Amino acid sequence: MYINSIISKLVDQYDDFTETEKIIADYFLKNKKMDDFSIRNMKRKIFVSEASLSRFAQKIGFRGYREFVYEYSRIFTTPQDKDYSSSSVINVYEQILNRFNTIIDIDQIKRLIQYFKAYDHIHVIGIASSGLAGEEMKRRFTRLGVLMESCSEGDLMKIQSLLMTQRNLVIGISISGTSDEIVFALKHAHERKARTVLITGNTEKKEYVDELVCIPVLENLDTGNIISPQFPVLVFIDLLYNSYLNENQNTLKLQKETVEILKGK
């Protein structure tokens, strides 16, 4: 076990918490120092009731809030827990990787690979760090002979979306799934009969998205709360990349040749 089991429980059960319980969990996940965790102080600090604190503690396996606080406080008083901050980051990575085992859709990955073969023009779009992930996707697949373009400039991707046709595949990356520029581009590309894909942590289906790729995320991951918000995106790209290699053995030769060319720079 990488870190204190309490932190592991908070991360693992986060999606099952009520909104009030998430407020409590957020406090204890973000906190980095010993403090007054008494009911009286917590009621004043995060504006929740005593009953809410009690239910929260019981939900993660404790008899009551006092027992939870006792165990949580050991993070800061036990010598082996001094590396709490870095350990919590490692644990979040671990939790997301574990969730990939249950959320990943192998058939969907196979369909995406077929799209890469079927479409003449592939466009990957994303804003800020999602744009960086899109650039990484472009670089990796271009080395396998899949020609992609990436765009992280909002105005440009809006203009490009108006030029899409049925020969285009547009892949949007947005952890929240609500980025204005991404939504605009996918909507207008879809209206022009382009195939649209959205890689996101938002499971809500959208009529302008032909293929919704759901990746495991944590609350507020799009703001870089605990780890880099693009970690699950990059993991999915790795899965997609590996599957493409397995189904297209002839690309291994091209990959090796590309590596040799880059080494010879």
TrEMBL record:
Pfam families referenced in this protein's UniProt entry, alphabetically: HTH_6, SIS
GO BP terms, alphabetized: carbohydrate derivative metabolic process
Keyword vocabulary terms for this entry: DNA-binding, Transcription, Transcription regulation
HTH rpiR-type domain segment(s): 4-79
One example GO MF annotation: DNA-binding transcription factor activity
Transmembrane segments: none
Superkingdom per UniProt: Bacteria
Claim: Transcription is one of the keywords in the record: yes
Ranges where the SIS domain occurs: 112-250
Glycoprotein keyword on record: no
PANTHER family: GLUCOKINASE, RPIR-FAMILY TRANSCRIPTIONAL REGULATOR
Protein name per its UniProtKB record: MurR/RpiR family transcriptional regulator
Organism per entry: Sharpea porci
Organism ancestry: Bacteria, Bacillati, Bacillota, Erysipelotrichia, Erysipelotrichales
